[in-house]
């Protein structure tokens, strides 16, 4: 749409054709607007509508308007706040680790050496596997009795060879974060690698001539110039992590402090068939994710624009 | 029509007071659930007599091919024509597929294959036809306990299709004489190799906990189904007892992640010497070469044994266009010949007493006599349209008492208040 507006704005001279061009633009974008309305706007509005009602589980076909009661019930319940806390802890730790590891991987992939293309392909493998698949894999590996993790620890006579990884508070969250980092650090690396590749080589050459060390070059050149790419990658990963569902669903079913917001909403909606309260949780999740992305864009919006203008 | 209006009026009145009308008939032995009343659509036995037209049977995936075999046999009779519509393997998925169809008033599924715990919900939603006359006509054939989940407000809302009950498996090389009480079981487990059960936070934990609770004379809901009664001295005894068993090593710590399969693996690999599990383990443990024996579940000291019943019921959808054909097929699928087939070929335990005495059944499923005993003394889980919430309140709090260090007292009082809240669900 913005492209169409830009074209229109660029040609202010011919008035007659401007109108028809505007109309044409409207016609051209209308199919996608209709699709967006059907696919995105309608379900969101419907979820909001559902969240303002209660649907009876006891009396056939009855529902009643309850206003914001479902929201009040949600935000006064400890289950909701515990799921919010869990979701944010998970997001903060996993995204931080992914950034650090992803950056290291990107720098490695960017360096020129033999076998670089093989490395690039190998690094991407975890990201290509479905999350549910990786979750099943880690669940098996961290099985307390027959799992690979404990077998290795026992074989090496290391402590913790009898840990019940998925059956204890703290440990379950650690496994979940580990599985998420393993899977999505390559994605982070890929985005950062793209950022690295647009940094011109002559900047580094000049720094070298001035006698800057490797560390100085990294801190004063790579990081500042990579900032837009880092921020874009962070936005992607943060919003994704806030909606985490598949890992806890497969690994723990939400036990031992792993009930994330999405999982909690799913349990209320699908298992308990509490359509109103469940929808209110979905709407709250939506609001939280929106708020976080709004914050990000407010904080770093200039950088994204700068990145767009640079390239 | 008058009856329909009357029941619609009753429903509206219920809605007005929001607390529900309660039972229509006092002194019943069955379950009482607010809001469940006949929608005027009753299926009588003679409706099945001239069955014709098409019938669709919606049930979970036909993993062994027995469902389609029975459908074929039925269709060969030249009455109605039955089509099998397979739902996903997972019970949660089956539930959501069926509820979606019924919410949309879809006539697609005539015969609904429902887990026993959904029957009350489906009846409360008005999705099932009343099959009381059809059950009454052949009530004595069924094992009485299997009728419990379909019996609400003195009416039957579905026909039992298969049942299931827990066993105590014991490794004969480690345990010489099988224990008969839970106290003995935990004692033996402590000294000779551990007890396994379904300790993960899910439906299986509710089942395993209720087996001890019911055996100790405890309950979850009051007789009128309106109040939670789980915060009782009996429940505290049971929960502290289970906590103690984990503390003293009778139950391994890793049981906190065990569902049916994980606990079976632990038994087969020798991690535990005793195991609470369903009959399906029998054939698999035999194949794995384990030297084991089975017994019906132990009882609480001074109580009587109580296995929780699993299985499926068959209901007739309110929106079915061919209830006569549906009933005719249900009668066929729950008749001795089909029940025998399901039991032998699919290991789906029969709901008819006579099937367990059949020589061919005994040969294929050697545990049949023990299973009959277990089913006869079986108890059903709380019968309520909000059962999923009740079960969650139980397994969440029992789990945190067993594995996350919550005291039995506070876990039970939390479960009590959560169940009471669930019962007030509109």
What does this structure look like?
- With about 300 residues, chain A is an all-alpha fold.
- Chain A has 2 domains: about 1-50; about 75-310, MetI-like (MetI-like fold, Orthogonal Bundle), CATH 1.10.3720.10.
- Chain A contains 13 helices and 2 strands.
- Chain A has helices at about 1-10, 15-50, 70-75, 80-110, 115-130, 130-140, 150-155, 170-195, 200-210, 215-240, 245-250, 260-270, 275-310, and strands spanning about 55, 65.
- In chain A, β1 and β2 (about 65) form a beta hairpin.
- In chain A, α4 (about 80-110) packs antiparallel against α10, α8 (about 170-195) packs across α10 and α12 runs antiparallel to α13.
- The longest helix of chain A has about 35 residues, at about 15-50.
- The two termini of chain A are about 20 Å apart.
- With about 425 residues, chain B is of the alpha/beta class.
- Chain B has 2 domains: about 40-165 and about 310-380, D-Maltodextrin-Binding Protein, domain 2 (3-Layer(aba) Sandwich), CATH 3.40.190; about 175-310 and about 385-425, 3-Layer(aba) Sandwich (D-Maltodextrin-Binding Protein, domain 2).
- In chain B, β4 and β5 (about 155) form a beta hairpin.
- In chain B, α7 (about 205-215) packs across α15, α8 packs across α15 (about 385-405) and α15 packs antiparallel against α16 (about 410-425).
- Chain B is globular.
- Chain B starts with a helix and ends with a helix.
- The interface between A and B is medium-sized, with 30 and 38 residues.
Greatest interface and its participating residue counts:
A-B, 30 and 38 residues
- Spatial shape of chain A: flat
Global Rg of chain B: 22 Å
Secondary-structure-derived class of chain B: alpha/beta
CATH level 3 topology of the largest domain in chain B = D-Maltodextrin-Binding Protein, domain 2
Order of helices and strands of chain A: HHEEHHHHHHHHHHH
What is the tally of helical segments of chain B? 16
Mean pLDDT of chain A: 87
What name does the CATH topology of the largest domain in chain A carry? MetI-like fold
The first-level CATH class name of the largest domain in chain B:
Alpha Beta
Overall shape of chain B: it is: globular
Number of domains of chain A: 2
- Uncertain stretches of chain A: 1-9
Helix content of chain A: over 70%
DSSP, total strands of chain A = 2
According to CATH, the homologous superfamily of the largest domain in chain B is Periplasmic binding protein-like II
- The helix fraction of chain B, in percent, is 40-55%
Instruction: Give the count of structural domains of chain B.
Output: 2
